[in-house]
Amino acid sequence: MTGVRLDKWLWAARFFKTRTLAARACETNRARIGGQTAKSSREVRLGDALQVQTETSTFEVEVLGLSDMRGPASVAQALYRETEESKRKREEQAAQRRLMPTFEVVNAGKPTKKDRRRYDSFRDR
Questions:
Q1: CA separation for the pair 53, 55 (Å, rounded)
Q2: Could you read off the pLDDT of 62-108 as tens digits, one per residue?
Q3: What is the secondary structure of 56-108 as a DSSP string?
Q4: pTM of the full structure
Q5: Can you give the pLDDT at residue 12?
Q6: How far apart are CA 55 and CA 15, in angstroms?
Q7: Inter-residue contact 60 to 50 (CB < 8 Å)
Q8: Which residue has the higher pLDDT, 107 or 25?
Q9: CA quadruple 44, 23, 68, 70: dihedral positive or negative?
């Protein structure tokens, strides 16, 4: 095998949960081969340098193996090697996300009976 479609490889390497999401990432220029945007049909070859942007982080990897079938995570991790700079950047981003404040989701829609009682008790004070 000399090459594999980019969307299949991203899916097999477990960067994306479905092949559709991998293809959509290619369409929205979130996957690059050698610094150039790549369509989902472009072939990935051994030794290619990929930049992959997922929802949470950006990966810079070198292709070590080719596969068009999704397998266990241990096999998927053997398909690529992440650069040290990429690992460092991802760890810094994760640390920054942990420090960011979290906000409570406000219940949109009709208040529940418990909410109504709480509002009434607040107004009576």
A1: 7
A2: 999 999 899 999 999 999 999 999 999 999 999 998 898 887 777 67
A3: S-EEEEEE----SS---HHHHHTTEEE-HHHHHHHHHHHHHHHHS---PPP--
A4: 0.76
A5: 95
A6: 10
A7: yes
A8: 25
A9: positive
**Burial class of residue 70, CB neighbours in 10 A (0-12, 13-18, 19+):** middle
- At 109, the pLDDT band (50, 70, 90 cuts) reads confident
Average pLDDT over residues 44-58: 92
Fold held by 1-86: 3.10.290
String of DSSP letters for 17-37? SSHHHHHHHHHTT-EEETTEE
- What amino acid occupies position 48? D
For the chain, the distance separating the N- and C-terminal CA atoms, rounded to the nearest angstrom, is 75
The residue whose two tokens read 């241990």 is: 74
Domain boundaries, the chain: 1-86
Question: What b-and-e string marks burial along 21-55, b requiring 16 or more CB atoms within 10 Å of the CB?
Answer: ebbebbeeebbbbeeeebebebebeeebebbbeee
Looking at residue 36, its amino acid is Q
